[in-house]
Design brief:
The protein is built from twelve helices and 21 strands. It is α+β, with helices and mostly antiparallel strands. The strands form two sheets. Strands 1, 2, 3, 4, 5, 6, 7, 8, 9, 10, 11, 12, 13 and 14 form a 14-stranded antiparallel sheet that branches. It is globular and about 75 Å long. This is Pyruvate-formate lyase-activating enzyme.
Length: 425
């Protein structure tokens, strides 16, 4: 398992004299064969700026910084793959922070790149190669021509063509899960927010947050344009916006109007679920699916990262419980990080949280963050660290009725219920 590194021009090499290492939190560790899979299609290899690679010298057996003017390398995994280890590196300049991406350990072996990861869902639907650029451009051109005054479609066209957001792209391709962002404001100050960062944060947000409040008519147009098949999903709450439930009035009005005109497809919201009263109104308007973002089921860890304004983790739990009791299929967008999510206390708390809220799905998402900044922010470990692979096995054993995946799934019972409703109509 040769160490992979980059020169200052970004050229990649493997080092025959060094074995590659990974990191679990702040702990540098060897990679096991059972943790490695071939580099998935759609993954990207990147150099980690202002870092130095660490490896084990094969002759001496010593762990050391690789000599020379080189940087460490990590992999950015496509959706559906869960990171098991961070890359092995040290900061060359501790004052510098890494851009907000989810870096995964990578090595060279058997003539190819391997990563410390596990496939947690079928990657085919969200494989970037399934988004044909020419077809997307035609879709954008058609919809912008048809809805000339709709600012939401204009905003989403930049998300699709500029940021290559697959959910935004789906909106123009009339397939699968599409996006309908609504909010420029948020009731949390997430440390790793990808759409808005304070100027003194040290790491710029990788994308720009929407800066206008769409009208109900604009939202309805996007929803109706997408909800044209029984299996289509339209989702509030995207990476380019704040917390969607802060615009509950617009969402409620839009859902009611859309459901007055069609029963096709499913309506989803991606939310922090802190505004419980707003969530109740959205649920009652006709919501089908709700995915709640969380990084932990422990108050001190949750609060350190999300910095909630006017709500607590208890509000999040109440929202999930209310939605589940009303027949909404609930899931969590679980932001995971090797060496933290696999701590004993984190695992125990999440298992009990899932049971109390009747979760149907845990969507595993690799946390995009500078590791040192994150580890300095959150509480220290209190119990044993099990490792990410064993953590996944524990979840599967303790939560047999909860699906572990990476993106929204429609349960058979909900699909059957909707089918009967459409037949009745």
């Amino acid at each position: 398992m040769n160490l992979v590194y980059a020169d200052r021009d970004g050229n990649l090499f493997d080092h025959p004299d060094y074995t590659g290492l990974g990191r679990s939190g702040e702990l540098v560790t060897e990679m096991m064969e059972g943790e490695l899979i071939p580099l998935p299609e759609g993954a990207t290899l990147v150099s980690l700026p202002d870092t130095r690679p660490i490896g084990v010298h094969k002759r001496t057996g010593e762990m050391q910084v690789v000599p020379g003017n080189f940087t460490a390398v990590g992999a950015l995994l496509p959706q559906s793959f869960t990171r098991l280890l961070l890359p092995g590196y040290v900061k060359a300049d501790k004052s510098k922070v890494l851009p907000l991406f989810g870096y995964t350990a990578v090595v060279w072996k058997d003539g190819g790149f391997y990563v410390a990861a596990e496939a947690c869902d079928d990657p085919e639907r969200w494989n970037p190669r399934n988004c044909d650029p020419d077809e997307l451009e035609l879709g954008v051109k058609r919809i912008l021509g048809e809805y000339k005054d709709n600012r939401l479609f204009q905003h989403l066209s930049n998300c699709a063509l500029g940021y290559e957001c697959l959910t935004a792209s789906n909106t123009f391709l009339n397939r699968w899960e599409g996006a309908v962002p609504v909010s420029f404001s948020c009731n949390a100050g997430c440390f790793g927010c990808i759409s808005e960062q304070p100027e003194d944060s040290g790491f710029p947000a990788p994308q720009t947050r929407m800066n206008f409040k769409p009208s109900t008519d604009e939202v309805v147009q996007v929803m109706l344009e997408h909800l044209k098949t029984p299996e289509s999903i339209i989702s509030f709450g995207q990476g380019c916006e704040g917390e969607p439930s802060t615009q509950a009035k617009t969402i409620i009005e839009a859902i009611r109007e859309v459901r007055r005109r069609t029963d096709l497809g499913y309506i989803n919201i991606n939310t922090n679920a802190g505004l419980t009263d707003h969530i109740r109104g959205i649920v009652d308007a006709g919501l089908d699916l709700m995915r709640v973002s969380t990084i932990s089921a422990l108050d001190d860890h949750y609060n350190a990262y999300y910095k909630p304004r006017g709500y607590t983790l208890r509000n999040v739990e109440k929202s999930l419980r209310y939605a589940a009791d009303k027949g909404v299929v609930t899931s969590i967008n679980y932001l995971i990080f090797p060496g933290v999510t696999d701590r004993e206390e984190e695992i125990e708390a999440m298992i009990e949280f899932a049971r109390r809220t009747d979760l149907k799905l845990i969507q595993l998402r690799n946390l995009n963050i500078d590791p040192e900044s994150y580890l300095s922010l959150i509480p220290a470990a209190r119990g044993e660290r099990y490792g990410m692979k064993q953590m996944l096995d524990i979840f599967r054993e303790e939560l047999p009725d909860v699906v572990l995946g990476s993106y929204t799934h429609i349960p058979d019972e909900l699909a059957e219920r909707r089918k009967k409703q459409l037949q009745h109509d």
